[in-house]
Amino acid sequence: MNFHQSPNVYVEQVHLKVTNKDRALSFYQEILGLQVLKESRTMVVFTVDGKTPILTILEPEQVTAKEARRTGLYHFALLLPTRADLAACLKHLMESGYPLQGASDHLVSEAIYLADPDGNGIEVYADRPSEKWEWSEGMVQMDTAPLDVEELFQQWNGEVWRGLPKETIIGHIHLHVADLHAAQQFYCDGLGFDIVTRYGEQALFISSGNYHHHIGLNTWNGRGAQPPSEKSAGLEYFTLIYPNKEEMMQTIKRLNNRHDSIQVEGEEIKLIDPSGTRLVLTTRA
């Protein structure tokens, strides 16, 4: 089942601010295996298929280092098509010598964690077949167990690493928020996502169409954490794709009823969540 197409709502693109465009370009191209689609003096747009943007980095004027313990990006997650692709990526990353932050088995998926040179978190993962996910009372069962690297490497087909597969997509995004209840009201009551996993009062996973999560929300940087300054490296914004304009208009009505700030620009709706994170709603229909 494809959880990243209509009628689901899903993350399509991520835009990041970095302190050094050339350094970030080297990382995302050589270490992570993205392709350059477009480049200017201060910006790079990356792709995996040679035509579709997936990640944009921008070096703004007077940008500062990523501020600690703020709201915003915890990580964005690149979803690979197969376990064999994940094995090949892990082998490449280990051979590159670039530091990894962890590797986990989440039952529904297997994941590798790292960060770019500015500290922007990244997850690279592959899903297990959705038929094998276990659900209980509407909640999907997840865990954070050590990844069985030896078993995963048995999936590697021996091919030379040539970058991320062209079928790679943004699988989900995980955000630090200031208040979990306010975030739930915005993303679930407003944007229409469903809760699929809850970790007490610290974290919430939400999705569309019974995916294990399109968005993660946590208060691990502290309840009441402040948003980063405009000059801080980190998340600029991310894009959510809605199946059609009608559903987008219903979303606008729900958000207007909650007195949320909305800015409409052409086919896009620009929003700021209760924790100060920017996002854009649009549709491909």
TrEMBL record:
One of its GO terms (molecular function) is metal ion binding. InterPro entries: Glyas_Bleomycin-R_OHBP_Dase, Glyas_Fos-R_dOase_dom, Glyoxalase_1_CS, VOC_core. SUPFAM superfamilies: Glyoxalase/Bleomycin resistance protein/Dihydroxybiphenyl dioxygenase. Keywords: Metal-binding. Pfam families: Glyoxalase (PF00903). Residues 10-127, 169-285 form the VOC domain. This is Glyoxalase. It comes from Robertmurraya siralis.
